[in-house]
């Protein structure tokens, strides 16, 4: 048998770009892999996907064990979307805030906040400094503190490009329920452009351990109650499932 034909049979996706996560337990062969650097490039990718009938999923450092980034459509790798804006004092929130693009590394944000006057920090953060905030926040990961449970609790605003190529801004003041869905959106409302986080002056930390009985059943109940409301919001910004993959289609019953 011809070696070229044999290779085609054994490796049918060899002509497509491949992506594998950090743990190497998830991989896929997207039609195209994009590495945008600007909002304009992100928007153009959404219009291309709409015109070509392709699905879109996003990836960053690939530290998630889940199949959230797996797709045979367009994969948008946001590692070059790494701008950190200068922190500002928000009079309405009575807090310092910082706006970051979705591909910003934990280390890069920490370095920027330390350079501020006064030096700033997140009250709850990630141990690894090589992960990127878009994935951490959109999947509801990491963080533990007395007044915040996970890092998404620190979000004050999210901007997302929806299936029509429109840039939407979500905040608690504008619409609390949609803001909650957008903060931990699982990549199902569109392509995330920026997050704005509440930060505070650096402080000394004291660690204490406390057992909270019955917390897991409570959290499970809360998740179930919010699930249907999230699906209604998702359909508003992605009515045709452009940002869906097989994993989320199964979870959502599509």
UniProtKB/TrEMBL annotation:
Pfam families per UniProt: FAD_binding_4
Superkingdom as given in the UniProt entry:
Eukaryota
InterPro entries in UniProt:
FAD-bd_PCMH (IPR016166), FAD-bd_PCMH-like_sf (IPR036318), FAD-bd_PCMH_sub1 (IPR016167), FAD-bd_PCMH_sub2 (IPR016169), FAD_lactone_oxidase-like (IPR010031), Oxid_FAD_bind_N (IPR006094), Oxy_OxRdtase_FAD_BS (IPR006093)
Keywords of this entry: Oxidoreductase
Record GO terms (molecular function)? FAD binding; oxidoreductase activity, acting on the CH-OH group of donors, oxygen as acceptor
User: Where would I find the FAD-binding PCMH-type domain in this sequence?
Assistant: 26-202
Which family does the entry's similarity section mention? Belongs to the oxygen-dependent FAD-linked oxidoreductase family.
What name does UniProt use for this protein? FAD-binding PCMH-type domain-containing protein
Source species: Linnemannia gamsii
Identify the taxonomic lineage of the organism of origin: Eukaryota, Fungi, Fungi incertae sedis, Mucoromycota, Mortierellomycotina
């Amino acid at each position: 048998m011809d070696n070229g034909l044999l290779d085609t049979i054994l490796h049918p996706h060899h002509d497509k770009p491949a992506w594998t996560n950090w743990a190497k337990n998830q991989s896929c062969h997207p039609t195209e892999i994009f590495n945008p650097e600007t909002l304009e490039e992100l928007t153009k990718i959404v219009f291309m996907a709409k015109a070509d009938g392709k699905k879109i999923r996003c990836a960053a450092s690939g530290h998630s064990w889940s199949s959230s980034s797996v797709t045979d459509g367009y994969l948008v790798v946001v590692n070059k979307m790494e701008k950190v804006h200068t922190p500002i004092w928000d009079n309405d929130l009575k807090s310092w805030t910082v706006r970051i693009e979705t591909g910003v590394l934990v280390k890069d944000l920490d370095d920027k906040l330390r350079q501020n006057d006064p030096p700033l920090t997140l009250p709850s953060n990630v141990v690894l400094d090589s992960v990127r905030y878009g994935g951490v926040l959109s999947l509801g990961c990491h963080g533990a503190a007395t007044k915040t449970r996970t890092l998404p609790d620190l979000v004050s605003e999210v901007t997302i490009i929806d299936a029509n190529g429109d840039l939407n801004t979500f905040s608690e003041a504008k619409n609390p329920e949609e803001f909650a869905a957008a903060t931990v959106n699982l990549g199902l409302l569109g392509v995330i452009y920026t997050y704005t986080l509440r930060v505070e002056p650096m402080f000394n930390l004291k660690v204490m351990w406390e057992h909270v009985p019955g917390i897991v059943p409570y959290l499970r109940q809360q998740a179930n109650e919010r699930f249907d409301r999230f699906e209604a919001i998702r359909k508003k910004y992605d009515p045709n499932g452009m940002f869906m993959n097989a994993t989320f289609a199964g979870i959502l019953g599509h």
